[in-house]
Amino acid sequence: MLTKNNTKFIKSLQLKKFRQKEGLFLVEGAKNTLELIHSSYKIKNLLVTDSFLSQNQNVINSNNIEVEILKEKELSSISTFKSNADALAVVYEKTPPTYNAAGFDLVLDDIRDPGNLGTIIRLADWYGIKNIICSSTTAEFYNPKVISASMGSIFRVNLYRENLSEFLKKQKDREIYGALLKGENVHKTDFKQNGLLIIGNESHGINQELIPMISNHITIPRIGEAESLNAAMATAIICDNVFRNQ
Question: Where do the tRNA/rRNA methyltransferase SpoU type domain residues begin and end (predicted)?
Answer without folding.
Answer: 106-239
